From TrEMBL:
It comes from the Archaea. This is DNA sulfur modification protein DndB. It comes from Methanosphaerula palustris (strain ATCC BAA-1556 / DSM 19958 / E1-9c). InterPro entries: DGQHR-contain_dom (IPR017601), DNA_S_mod_DndB (IPR017642). Pfam families: DndB. NCBIfam families: DGQHR, DNA_S_dndB.
Length: 380
């Protein structure tokens, strides 16, 4: 049975793509799942639709900024990478499926025969396709590894556009916190997880999955805000950031010293006040403050490498109450609500730097002048 199947496939026109495939049915239409060598992916999916208007495309335009990161992931993890299937539509030529047999599963397993003049349109996975092409330049040994491809038989542009819409309709990106929680390749993510699990300020008070905290939660910090704040403190902006023993020591000591100089944080550690009370009344109980303190801390340690711990005592002069609208409205808050917008982050950093007698960067100075100009003509 198998030999006759192979003879039938080999007898076909040589100017075709022949893929082993499994045939399935969705919504009454046939589709096929196959395994394609990575070296073939850039060759068969060659169309660049970025120059076409959106209404004539079957997918969004390629975001080239995403490609290097995905390619580097493949290059850095040749023995431990995972790529989900690419979904593609085939149009412009008849497609033939030859079953391996005549009974049972044998009618669903076989080969899909695609003329070389057929058009392939990626419905989901265009960035993976571009990243594979880039990665193969650095790691040609990956050429014969495979990726799953789901082939749909297209009946025109509208159908292909609808497939793209349907595939992405219910896609939900994981939260930043849960991405950090499950990332074992990023040493910085693992350090932040350890910080959340062992540091007195964060142990038991860090939300590990969500990026927002409900009013009744006993948590006060999110894993994502701790990551951002510590990342800014240590100035570790690149992915897979290397951490020295000294980096880890500074991070632990910095957050410990900050907690000593924010009385309410010390009370939280001693379980003498609840997280919900602090979030209701104080600016420092929100992710914005963690991020801003990290940015300020990086500048402080650079300016005062020997006595930065003593300098942090000036934090005690800050009135963190949200009711202190003279300071926080327009900086950390908009209409009484804490805002994580970049402008609010910068203005909050500015205030902390001013209280710590630290110079502002040129961009921070520009933002500060604009803020003061908009606020009572510079009078607050």
């Amino acid at each position: 049975m198998v030999s006759s199947f192979l003879k039938e496939v080999n007898a076909l026109d040589s100017f075709t793509y022949n893929f082993p495939a499994i045939r399935g049915i969705q919504a009454g239409r046939e589709y096929y799942i196959s395994m394609c060598p990575l070296k073939l992916i850039p060759k068969i999916f060659i169309f660049d639709e970025s120059t076409l208007p959106a209404q004539l495309r079957a997918q969004r335009t390629l975001n080239k900024a995403r490609i290097p990161d995905i390619a580097q992931y493949l290059v850095d993890n040749p023995k431990d990478y995972v790529f989900s299937a690419i979904s593609a539509s085939i149009s412009g030529a008849p497609v033939q499926f030859i079953p391996a047999g005549e009974n049972g599963m044998e009618t669903k397993i076989g080969a899909i025969i695609i003329p070389m003049d057929a058009q392939f349109i990626i419905n989901d996975g265009q960035h993976r396709r571009a990243a594979i092409e880039a990665a193969l330049i650095e790691r040609p040994e990956l050429a014969n590894e495979t990726i799953a491809v789901v082939f749909f038989i297209d009946t025109g542009l509208k159908r292909s556009q609808q497939i793209f819409s349907d595939l992405n309709r219910h896609a939900v990106r994981p939260t930043k916190s849960i991405s950090i929680l499950y990332d074992y390749r990023d040493p910085f993510a693992r350090f932040v997880m350890d910080l959340a699990a062992t540091h007195p300020l964060f142990k038991g008070f860090t939300e590990l999955e969500k990026t927002t905290i409900s009013n009744r939660s006993i948590k006060m910090f999110t894993l994502s805000s701790l990551y951002q704040g510590t990342q800014s403190l240590l100035n570790k902006k690149k992915k897979n950031k290397h951490l020295s023993t000294e980096d880890e020591k500074i991070a632990r000591e910095f957050w410990e010293e900050v907690s000593k100089n924010i009385p309410e944080w010390d009370l939280l550690i001693k379980h003498k006040v609840s997280s919900s009370e602090l979030r209701t009344e104080f600016v420092h109980a929100h992710g914005l403050a963690i991020h801003a303190l990290g940015i300020m801390g990086q500048a402080l340690i650079k300016q005062h490498p020997e006595d930065w711990k003593q300098q942090l005592e000036q934090l005690q002069k800050i009135d963190w109450l949200r009711s202190n609208e003279q300071v926080w409205e327009g900086r950390a808050m908009n209409n009484g609500r804490i805002s994580k917008a970049q402008m609010n982050l910068t203005l909050t950093v500015n205030y902390l730097k001013q209280m710590m007698n630290l110079p502002l960067t040129n961009e921070e100075e520009r933002v500060e002048k604009r803020f003061l100009k908009q606020t009572h003509g510079g009078i607050r």
